[in-house]
UniProtKB/TrEMBL annotation:
<feature type="domain" description="HTH asnC-type">
    <location>
        <begin position="11"/>
        <end position="72"/>
    </location>
</feature>
<dbReference type="Pfam" id="PF13412">
    <property type="entry name" value="HTH_24"/>
</dbReference>
<dbReference type="GO" id="GO:0043565">
    <property type="term" value="F:sequence-specific DNA binding"/>
</dbReference>
<dbReference type="InterPro" id="IPR019887">
    <property type="entry name" value="Tscrpt_reg_AsnC/Lrp_C"/>
</dbReference>
<dbReference type="InterPro" id="IPR011008">
    <property type="entry name" value="Dimeric_a/b-barrel"/>
</dbReference>
<protein>
    <submittedName>
        <fullName>Lrp/AsnC family transcriptional regulator</fullName>
    </submittedName>
</protein>
<keyword id="KW-0804">Transcription</keyword>
<dbReference type="GO" id="GO:0005829">
    <property type="term" value="C:cytosol"/>
</dbReference>
<dbReference type="InterPro" id="IPR000485">
    <property type="entry name" value="AsnC-type_HTH_dom"/>
</dbReference>
<keyword id="KW-0805">Transcription regulation</keyword>
<keyword id="KW-0238">DNA-binding</keyword>
<dbReference type="InterPro" id="IPR036388">
    <property type="entry name" value="WH-like_DNA-bd_sf"/>
</dbReference>
<dbReference type="InterPro" id="IPR019888">
    <property type="entry name" value="Tscrpt_reg_AsnC-like"/>
</dbReference>
<dbReference type="GO" id="GO:0006355">
    <property type="term" value="P:regulation of DNA-templated transcription"/>
</dbReference>
<dbReference type="InterPro" id="IPR011991">
    <property type="entry name" value="ArsR-like_HTH"/>
</dbReference>
<dbReference type="GO" id="GO:0043200">
    <property type="term" value="P:response to amino acid"/>
</dbReference>
<dbReference type="InterPro" id="IPR036390">
    <property type="entry name" value="WH_DNA-bd_sf"/>
</dbReference>
Length: 159
């Protein structure tokens, strides 16, 4: 096991408390985090640096309200393909990575090969995505599912 994985597996209670606080609001001050986790500023700063160096914390970002930026329409796209060659997979991956509306893409086990989560302004924007995708890669079957209501969405990992 390499050193990074070794560090990932050895999170103690203080590390976990810090991670919970950062996931809740990464913009809070070190003083606030230290107070909430029952420590002082320097040890908290050192732990955060250690967690970043170990690859536990990969980046910090903000979460936007999709409706506020006119991306309130969410589609889940189920894709089946008859193509499984490495060159097709590379083209497919490049096509997905080039599309900013793609939030997530997963290769699946089972009858569906891939699932893609999109955020777009409306059905017309979804169709533009679909037309661009099928122009770039051969796809056997596409099923688009419109999310009628988001019941839960989080980036919070239960550490």
């Amino acid at each position: 096991m390499n050193e990074v994985n070794e560090k990932k597996l050895r999170l103690d209670a203080l590390d976990r408390k810090i991670l919970i606080e950062l996931q809740d609001d990464a913009s809070q001050s070190l003083d606030d985090i230290a107070r909430k986790v029952g420590s002082s500023k320097t040890p908290v700063w050192n732990r955060i640096r250690k967690l970043k160096d170990a690859g536990v914390i990969t980046r910090q970002t903000v979460i936007l309200d999709p409706d506020a930026v006119d991306l309130g329409t969410c589609f889940f796209v189920l894709i089946r393909t008859s193509e499984h060659e490495a060159s097709w997979q590379q083209r497919f991956l490049a096509a997905l990575q080039a599309r900013p509306e793609v939030l997530e893409a997963h290769r699946l086990a089972g009858e569906i090969d891939y699932i893609v989560k999109l955020r777009v302004s409306d059905a017309r924007a979804y169709d533009a995505f679909y037309q661009a995708l099928i122009a770039e890669v051969k796809i056997f079957n596409v099923t688009a599912l419109l999310s009628m209501e988001e019941l839960k969405s989080t980036t919070f990992l239960p550490v």
